[in-house]
Amino acid sequence: MIMETRYQRHIQLSEIGPNGQEKIKKAKILVIGAGGLGCPALQYLTAAGVGTLGIMDPDHISISNLQRQILFNENDLGKNKVLRAKKYLKTLNPDVKVLTFPFALTHENAEQYISVFDIIIDGTDNFYTRYLISDLCVLLNKVMIYGALYKFEGQVSVFNYNNGPSYRCLFPYPPQVGEIPNCSEVGILGVVPGIIGVYQATEAIKVILGLGEVLSGKLLCVNLLSHQNTLLDFEKNQKEIDQIKKQGKAIPIENQDCFIDFEVSLSQLSSEDKIKWIDVREEDELPSLSHLNPLSSSVSLDLLLDNKQKIIAFCKTGKRSRAYVKKMKNKGIGNCFSLKEGAAQLNEWVEKIVNYNDT
Amino acid sequence: MEMKLRYFGQLQEATGKKEEVLTDSFESLGNLRNFLLKQYPKLNHVHFKMAQNNKIDIDSSPLSGNLIDLLPPFSGG
Question: pLDDT higher for A308 or B32?
Answer without folding.
Answer: B32
